Amino acid sequence: MASESKKVQSKVQTARRLRDAVELLVKNIFFLCGFVAVASVLFISVYLVISGLPAMLEIGVTDFLLGDTWDGKNGVYGILPFILTSLAGTAGAVVLGVPMGVLTAMFLAKVAGNRVAAVIRSAVALLAGIPSVVYGLVGMVVLVPAIQKAFHLSSGACLLAAIVVLTVMILPSIINVAETALRAVPKEYEEASLALGATHTETIFRVSLPAARSGVATAIVLGVGRAIGEAMAIIMVSGNVANMPGSLFTPVRFLTTAIASEMNYATVGSLWRQSLFSIALVLFLFIMLINVALNVFIKNKKEG
Amino acid sequence: MKKFIAMLMAGAMAFSLAACGNQASKESQAGTDQTDKPEELSGSVVCLGSTSMTDVMTVLAEQFGMDHEGVTVSVEGGGSGAGVEAATNGTADLGLASRSLKDEEKSAGLVENIIALDGIAIIVNADNSVADLSVDQIAKIFTGEITNWSEVGGTAGEIAVIGRESGSGTRDGFESITKTEDKCKLNQELTSTGAVIEAVRGNTAAIGYASLSAVEHQNGINAITVDGVACNEDTILDGTYKIQRPFVIITKEGVELTAQTKAFFDWAMSKDAADLIRQAGAVPTAE
Questions:
Q1: Each residue of B198-235: pLDDT tens digit?
Q2: End position of a domain, from candidates A59, A76, A95
Q3: Which ipTM value was assigned to this complex?
Q4: CATH of domain B43-117+245-284
Q5: Record: contact A265-B162, CB cut-off 8 A
Q6: Chain A CB contacts of B157 below 8 Å
Q7: How big is the CA angle at A55 (ends A54 and A56), to the nearest 5 degrees?
Q8: From B147, which residue of chain A is nearest by alpha-carbon distance?
């Protein structure tokens, strides 16, 4: 009898030990996965700073950031045109895309019937899944000639074309996040507003939207992040010439496309190549700033 | 049912992958069979110089590497000047230059071996009535001195000038032949030959340039004649088409090439490599 119970006991112990070992293994796998993400971010940040800073210091930070001429091949490195273009392009996309996106989100969350909403929602999801090179291709073949004809230009590849493409590209993220935020507004708020005699439209604009404002702000920042980091779609429609963004019809080059179009040619180790990394560093800082802003909004949302 | 379909698809994919693998290995075997050289070559061949030649040389290097397993051919950029220098002081096995050698370079013992000619076609939209321009007119259009098609005999309308990004071999070639280096005022700077052709196709006011091989058999665009000469292989070979330049492999007198370099060089200059060179966008000179 005693030996029997001992046997059972040892069996239980082995099972427990095995279970613990598996637990530990799984835990380590989880940790490893988490570590890969953190390590990648750290590696990229450190790498960008190490490879981007020297050129910036050699050229001179003010000359680099505020110089208005870029001719990498011949050693003139001023990236102000790229910075201004990226800012103008992003701003343009936000000005067009945010109202459109937020209104769509309102429609989906508060107005549309279930069937209509389902159709629009799946269309938006599809829009988000289209590869950026396809946006670029369609933009180049359809949008650029259309702009050229509509405004009687010699060439339709310009800032405006890039803004239009970026607007369509940031719509999905704005719509999704804003819709979720609008849906999360407590029903009581809206019911109270309706009970006080406000119309449906008044309720949406005066009650639902203000209540969901931090979520909408998050949506906007997400859109900005997507717009400023895009390269492939706009390299094909923006003209890609290093001009100051003088008007909507100037062919321009963005921070992202400046890196993409010259990285192939800049000889390894040259100041030209290093300065492309410096552009990447500037872009990275912009995106970090946007992320910080995003975190602030999300934090506010939790507290409010 | 879903699981079953998924498994079926996974199986099909695995099978097709395996099939691809088989094909690839068969092809590489065929490649080795073609070369009937008994002695095994090994080691490396370093080619250095003109970035414009990178496309052609890379294609050749890859094929040669497949045919001779022990040999790796590397192609490095740096520009024609670097190619001449590398051939002079022996830092690379072969120097590359996308221009003719100067007399003083030749007298220093360098040998010019023209492997191919690079013809750059000037293209306009198919609806554009302009069919011929002189080199001088082309240069003036690209530098912004001529801005309207009516100045060169076309229907009035502002010219949209489309070029390539700085660093591109085609741009380098075009600008050095038309003497418009760093003076071009472009409306669009596109990053591939295909993009330039697409942009010209979509814009009746556009003018652009692209390698000859890329513009043949294209609808919607016209390769115009330059000084009355059409751009094709014949006119490039006989030298009447102006916008062309030689692709040169530079060797040095009195310097013996390593066995693998000599094999690569002989093969690259021979007729066997002509099709590959043509595919890479240049006109082979081997006869």
A1: 889 988 999 999 988 788 888 899 999 999 999 988 99
A2: A59
A3: 0.70
A4: 3.40.190.10
A5: no
A6: 154
A7: 90
A8: A154
